[in-house]
Specification:
The structure holds four protein chains of four kinds. Chain A is an alpha/beta fold. Helix content of chain A is 24%, strand content 30%. Chain A is globular, with a radius of gyration of 22 Å. Chain C is of the alpha/beta class. Chain C starts with 9 loop residues before the first strand and ends with a strand. The relative contact order of chain C is 0.15. Chain D has a single domain, classed as Aminohydrolase, N-terminal nucleophile (Ntn) domain (Glutamine Phosphoribosylpyrophosphate, subunit 1, domain 1). Chain D has eleven helices and 18 strands. The chains are: A alpha/beta, B alpha+beta, C alpha/beta, D alpha+beta. At the A-B interface, helix 8, strand 22, strand 23, helix 9 and helix 11 of A face strand 1, strand 3, helix 3 and helix 4 of B.
């Protein structure tokens, strides 16, 4: 009987479990979970703070998921090391488990930069895990002034999550616009003004030089007084475990399309990996949820002897702030098609007869058609792109393709 | 399994499917009461260009990417039907970002909804199908690659 | 033109409490009756454009619409009734011949409704069609006078080409052009599924429908549109159209605007040219010319196709039929004055020709009196509306019935009688692609099959009641009929007794 | 006044019986009269009759015309008409017995005649056709005269009354024939008419029939195209004409004729594996659709040298067949056969549409 070990208990792990089970109903699966919660999706934590979901609704799978999947979960443990020669995993409480194949799904961790005086801040938090959210909830039982360092996805979702609970929210970032990793300055300004209208204060192109208790001294010279500090500068893939057993790593653990690392029998999936971005062909850490699941599933299938490839991963994000939806995908490279709408915009990037990337703010109707064009590398000559540019619709496809889509099993 | 299929050759673009859908999922007895004077949020939508029109609703894909992408675990496929647990949905629209057919859309409260083949309401058979005046929408079993 | 004196004929009544402004009516009306009041969700209707085709009424999901006859009336006058006066206004406006479509709507006697059918009681058992076989199959065509035997004494079982029908009904001629591609597809598919025939009319046979050849009767009309060797070869039978019940004595005119694309190719005439069907066949002035055409067609098809000659029911129909029976034709089709049309001058439609019931009775009796009834089969049309009309026609002496209006109704026609406008909202009498697609042949053919299945059941029930288990024993069985409210003369022509006798 | 036969169509129920000797042995009429007694209730006293074959051997070359006349004048006119066309070999009253049960009798005569050859030549007609036309003419045009039997070496005897009384009345015990058929009638109107009783005959064809056919007017209007005049409006009359048309004029065999009037269902024909047989049935049904007889009937057709019994294709009327030695019996009820021959064997009810044809040995009649 095969022994499968999955290190990590996030969405990639669930994908891996379901992938293994699609091939092998018998083999034993062991999940080693650092967190003490059954699997939930980390993006939900801001919604939790906001009150849009609660602990009972947050689990990613049903209560009996592990049992039905024939999986044992070792909660509260981290893996100390993998021995690829012996095919064993040793946990930090000293147990040694043998494996037939192992999947590293260790995710990522918040990066906390060394800022002077950070240790003087009494209430400081990261915003990654449910425990972080629970702690923040506890800390904001009464309205507090909140300072968030980092205007990326985590920082802004945290701002939205805390909005109703906070007396004030200030977000600072060294970058000159919000969501610098996924938006250009132009689009970011639309979002920024929307957030500002909702009471979020921004200090951009600026950063904290030094903390002094509950006061942040900014590089620009000003100070911000706060009660609660959230550090949301960025995340780093957790590569140490894989690196420790000889897997090649860069910013993440390097994997092929089959999710195997450079060490045979060791697979990796999710935020800890670095795979190929199909929209540009480069290796990247694509720390987004759909990819995590699909990588996990692919790894699981291959671990159990099946054959699966996941070769159309692209960066993509659907996110909303105070009712304003923002969607992005792919790479912003090539010729730009741009539409401005009232309180929103659309940007499409095309190159070499392909759609490479897009940014949508506001109207996101049927955005999946654009995503699909990028993922499927659809030749734009084969569709009515003039129509598609203006409105995402399958009317731009050939009637044969529509016939397959809407008249066949897909 | 039976799915809803659309043949654009016969779609008249009359939009009745949208209204029948909205009514079927309203839980109300009378269409006028259910739909009069308000915007409708159907789970099927007419799309098209000048030359053609057709209705789009969930394809209940063999390998549904929306299920894999849902950040809340709210979309699941059971017995061949892709369903949304609306109590879990947080309205992030990731499913809209990934669905290649444009089959999902939010309801008036921003919660996602999609065609669930009228299995959850009292229609028995999809309302868009029974109400289509030209059999452009059918509910039947078809072979893969047929 | 200033004021035209014409008040709207119909009134569109919208129940505002039920209207959900879904806009189906707006999108579905080719006459553009309904429209959103600009910038609002309110829908308004222009009564003057309404032809009462009921498309909007049928599709309105909340049943918020009804169309009623406008009750704005001129001063009552039993002689100058409203319609007569309107027609005068129209002609004074346009200076033209009035055009109409479909069958004669005037309140002239419908003899079918004055004939009642017998049933068995006591002396003879009714037959239950659910328990016993009940046969509706018929063969149309000429039957040899004498049985022939070979030298071995065995019967030489050779028959002339005949049309075999699973039931005594065919879809009568409607041309591609006057009706849409999808209407033709529906008819062809239904005819094949039912084991009966449909008829191309004079518009030729679209290449897509050659596959239905065994269930197709191809027409050779005075315009000779679409007639070529393959066309004749493809068919089950060939029909020479001499006349049509709705417009005896005149030809046809399909405007150039309808001669587009496939219609033009199928008719073999240039796009945009008017298709003028002459009133006579210019190669048939006397009856002997007809004989020549009959045999030309038979020669052309190697005597493998029965030839039908279709005529309108006119005053001396019995003599005409006798002449046709002797012309070599295998089947005579007679079209009564209530027959439909895609377009006819109103005056002709409403005033020329005679009822099919009387024509049929007269012709059947005349052919029997002359001993030539077996030389031809008789097919009658011109408002056969139901299974009981069929049963009555067969009992009067018909071999089979032609139906068209009933078939169109099955396809969705609401008898608004404005086919000539080309804006048929039901996708039948139109060539506008957006309207044509409204008739899905899957639905159309299924509805036709349903209709015919239903009629077949009813025919069987009626026959079973009479104790007859095959349609052959019903044909010409006038004892099974009685008249009500008919004069001696009418009874005499129909060859039936009065009820109670 | 209640209408009589010919003025209106009168449906009726009936009893039939028949006997034939395959060896051509002649029997008196006694047994067939007895056979009708147990079926008394199938008649109502408004019509009975018999047909006998082989009874006039000494006049076998002459047509035996049996007449009803309503007056002496009619008879004289009729005789004059006959004389112009036939050689009358013998003319006589048909002998009868007075019976209280039989009343209102017409004048009943028989003529043994042969057509004049010169007349046949002039009209270019064969003998049988000429006789048929004469019968049609007299029965339709000469008021008060009615030919009810017109074959050679056979005769029909019929009257208003119960069949057992009619047999005694006509002294059938004094005739000897190789085949007999009998009929008792249950018409649904009161008076009955002597001419309307069965059997109905034309030339040597006689038909006794039990049933009421629903195809009557379709059959009648068809057959009338060929010179037949259905003056009585009875089923028996039209069936007789149909059989005459098919057998004599179209020269079909008896079984082919049976396949026309009681044609198998299309589904049966399509199921036939004998392709020649299948083709034949398709041919006959297609050629003679209007001679299909629907509705209930059981008939016995008498002809020169044999009998054919036939039921409608659904077998809506009873009819049984039995045999003993050289004799074959047919009747509506088995009881009638038992009366004629208590030891009759091989009893069976023929299927609907299946003709039972019995022929007398060649040369034995």
């Amino acid at each position: 009987m095969n022994e499968y070990i999955i290190i990590g208990n996030g969405v990639a792990a669930v994908g891996c479990i379901e992938g293994v089970r699609s091939q092998d109903a018998e083999g034993r699966i062991t999940v080693i979970s650092k967190e003490r919660h059954p699997v939930y999706c980390r993006p939900l934590i801001s919604y939790y703070l906001e009150g849009k979901t609660d602990l009972s609704r947050m689990p990613y799978r049903d209560e009996d998921f592990y049992e039905k999947s024939g999986c044992r979960v070792l909660y509260g443990l981290a893996s100390a090391q993998i021995d690829p020669a012996k095919q064993t995993v040793t946990t930090d409480d000293g147990k040694t488990l043998s494996y037939t194949s192992v999947c590293v799904a260790t995710g990522s961790s918040p990066f906390v930069p060394p800022i002077a005086g950070l240790d003087t801040v009494p209430d400081k938090f990261s915003f990654m895990t449910l425990d972080d959210a629970l702690a923040l909830e506890e800390a904001t039982q009464t309205p507090k002034r909140v300072l968030i360092v980092g205007a990326g996805l985590i920082g802004l979702k945290c701002a939205e999550g805390l909005h109703a609970r906070a007396a004030s929210i200030t977000v600072c970032d060294l970058a000159d616009h919000v969501l610098p990793s996924i938006l250009d300055a132009d689009c970011a300004s639309i979002l920024q003004s929307h957030l500002e209208q909702n009471g979020i204060r921004f200090m951009l192109s600026d950063t904290v030089e030094r903390f002094d208790g509950c006061t942040a001294h900014m590089r620009s010279g000003g100070t911000v007084d706060f009660d609660v500090l959230v550090m949301a500068v960025g995340v780093r893939a957790n590569t140490a475990l894989a690196k420790g057993c000889g897997c090649e790593t860069n910013r993440g653990v390097l994997v092929g399309d089959n999710m195997e690392t450079t060490v045979s029998g060791i697979y990796a999936a999710g935020d800890c990996t670095e795979g190929t971005d199909a929209s540009c062909g480069q290796k990247r850490v694509l720390a987004i949820l759909p990819n995590a699941y699909m990588q996990g599933f692919t790894a699981g299938v291959n671990m159990a002897g099946g054959t699966a490839r996941f070769d159309n991963a692209i960066p993509m994000n659907a996110i909303s702030f105070f009712g304003l939806h923002v969607m992005t995908a792919g790479t912003y490279d090539g010729e730009l098609y741009e539409e401005k709408t009232d309180g929103g915009c659309k940007k499409l990037y095309t190159k070499d007869d392909l759609l490479k990337g897009f940014i949508l703010i506001g109207d996101t109707t049927r955005a999946g058609l654009y995503t699909s064009l990028i993922r499927e590398r659809t030749s734009l000559q084969t569709i009515n792109f003039e129509l598609m540019k203006k409105v995402a619709t399958s009317a731009a496809y050939s009637s044969e393709k529509r016939k397959r889509s809407f008249g066949g099993v897909v | 399994m039976k799915r809803v299929y659309v043949n654009e050759a016969w779609c008249l673009g009359c939009h009745l499917c949208e209204y029948n859908c909205a009514f079927a999922n309203s839980g109300l007895q009378d269409m006028a009461t259910a739909l009069k004077g308000k915007p409708i949020y159907p789970r099927i939508h007419i799309e098209g260009s000048d030359a053609i029109t057709y209705a789009v609703s969930c394809r209940h894909c063999t390998d549904p990417i929306c299920v894999k992408s849902c950040i809340a675990g709210a979309i699941r496929k059971r017995d061949g039907v892709v369903r949304i647990d609306q109590t879990k949905c947080v309205g992030c629209l990731t499913c809209v970002l990934v669905c290649p057919y444009g089959a999902l859309s939010p309801n008036e409260n921003g919660v996602m909804q999609k065609c669930e083949l009228c299995l959850q309401n009292s229609c028995g058979e999809p309302a868009c199908v029974t109400g289509c005046p030209n059999r452009a929408i059918v509910y039947e079993e078809r072979e893969e690659d047929a | 033109m200033g004021v035209e004196y014409l008040t709207p004929e119909y009134e569109v009544i919208r129940n505002e409490n039920r209207c959900i402004a879904c806009g189906v009516c707006v999108r579905q009306c080719a006459n553009e009756v309904h429209a959103f009041l600009e910038g609002t969700e309110k829908i308004i209707s222009d009564d003057a454009k309404c032809v009462d085709c009921q498309r909007c009424v049928s599709l309105c999901p909340t049943h918020a619409l009804k169309i009623v006859k406008n009750d704005c009336r001129l001063r009552e006058n039993a002689n100058w009734d409203n319609d007569t006066i309107r027609e005068v206004y129209k002609q004074a406006n346009s200076g033209g011949v009035l055009l109409s479509s479909m069958g004669n709507p005037k309140p002239l006697p419908v003899y079918w409704d004055k004939i009642l059918i017998n049933a068995s009681q006591v002396t003879n058992p009714p037959i239950d069609p659910l328990r016993e076989p009940m046969e509706t199959r018929v063969f149309l065509g000429k039957r040899p006078q004498k049985v022939e035997r070979g030298a071995d004494g065995k019967l030489r079982c050779e028959l002339l080409p005949m049309i075999e029908l699973s039931m005594p009904i065919m879809f009568s001629a409607m041309s591609y052009g006057s009706i849409s591609y999808n209407a033709h597809a529906s008819l062809a598919r239904a005819a094949q599924a039912l084991g009966i025939c449909y008829n191309t009319g004079e518009g030729g046979l679209h290449e897509d429908f050659y596959a239905y050849g065994d269930n197709t009767i191809v027409q050779v009309a005075s315009g000779r549109f679409g007639v070529h060797e393959n066309y004749l070869e493809a068919a089950r039978a060939i029909e020479i159209k001499m006349g049509q019940g709705a417009k005896p004595g005149i030809g046809g005119h399909l405007p150039g605007s309808k001669i587009v694309g496939d219609v033009s190719r199928t008719r073999m005439i240039p796009e945009g040219s008017d298709a003028i069907t002459p009133a006579p066949h210019h190669d048939i002035y006397p009856i002997e010319d007809l004989r020549q055409l009959v045999f030309s067609l038979k020669d052309a098809t190697d005597y493998r196709k029965p030839v039908i000659v279709k005529v309108a029911a006119v005053h001396n129909i019995a003599a005409i039929a006798s002449g046709i029976a002797r012309s070599g034709a295998d089947v005579i089709a007679i079209d009564g004055f209530r027959g439909g049309t895609g377009a006819a001058p109103t005056r002709i439609r409403d005033n020329v020709g005679i009822p099919i019931e009387l024509a049929l009775a007269a012709v059947d009796q005349r052919l029997r009196d002359e001993g030539i009834r077996n030389d031809v089969s008789l097919v009658v049309g011109g408002s056969v509306r139901s299974a009981s009309d069929v049963v009555k026609a067969i009992a009067l002496g018909a071999d089979a019935c032609y139906i068209a209006t009933a078939a169109l109704l099955a396809l969705g026609c609401h008898l608004c009688r404005t086919c000539q406008s080309g804006k048929c909202n039901w996708g039948i009498a139109t060539q506008r692609p957006d309207l044509v697609k409204r008739l899905n042949p899957d639905v159309g053919s299924e509805r036709l099959v349903h209709l015919m299945d239903a009629w077949r059941h009813e025919i069987k029930e009626l026959m079973g009641g009479m104790g007859i288990n095959s349609v052959e024993a019903l044909r010409g069985n006038r004892l099974m009929l009685r008249g009500v409210g008919l004069t001696e003369k009418e009874l005499q022509i129909l060859g039936i007794a009065h009820a109670g006798e | 006044m209640t209408p009589k036969e010919g003025q209106v169509r009168i449906p009726s129920g009936c009893a039939i019986a028949a006997v034939i000797s395959r060896e051509g042995n002649r029997m008196t009429g006694e047994r067939i009269i007895e056979a009708m007694k147990p079926m008394h209730d199938r008649s109502n006293g408004l019509g009975g009759g018999f047909a006998a074959y082989g009874i006039y051997p000494e006049y076998r070359d002459f047509y035996a015309l049996h007449f009803f006349f309503d007056s002496r004048d009619t008879r004289k006119t009729c005789e004059a008409y006959l004389k112009e066309r036939f050689e009358i070999y013998k003319a006589e009253r048909i002998p009868t017995r007075k019976l209280p049960q039989i009343t209102d009798e017409p004048m009943i005569w028989r003529y043994f005649v042969a057509p004049l050859q010169s007349v046949l030549r002039d009209l270019q007609l064969d003998e049988k056709e000429f006789v048929v036309r004469t019968v049609m003419h007299i029965n339709t045009s000469m008021k008060g005269a009615y030919i009810f039997s017109s074959g050679k070496n056979m005769g029909t005897f019929k009257a208003v009354g119960f069949p057992e009384d009619v047999g005694v009345y006509y002294r059938l015990d004094e005739y000897e024939g190789y085949a007999w058929t009998a009929h008792g009638r249950y018409p649904t109107n009161t008076p009955g008419w002597w001419g309307g009783a069965h059997p109905f005959t034309l030339l040597d064809y006689s038909v006794v029939h039990n049933g009421e056919i629903s195809s009557y007017d379709a059959n009648r209007r068809y057959i009338e195209m060929f010179g037949y005049k259905c003056t009585l409006q009875t089923d028996t009359e039209v069936i007789t004409y149909i059989l005459d048309y098919l057998i004599r004029r179209q020269e079909l065999t008896l079984s082919e004729a049976a396949s026309v009037i009681a044609a198998p269902f299309w589904s049966t024909i399509e199921g036939k594996t004998d392709l020649e047989d299948k083709r034949k049935h398709i041919y006959l049904r297609t050629l003679f659709p209007s001679l299909l007889i629907t509705g209930p009937f059981s008939i016995v057709l008498g002809f020169d040298g044999g009998l054919m019994a036939l039921n409608d294709r659904l077998k809506l009327r009873s009819m049984v067949v039995g045999e003993k030695d050289d004799k074959v019996f047919v009747a509506s009820e088995e009881a009638a056969i038992r009366v004629m021959e208590p030891d009759a064997g091989n009893l069976y009810a023929p299927a609907g549409g299946e003709p039972v044809i019995i022929r007398v040995k060649e040369g034995a009649y």
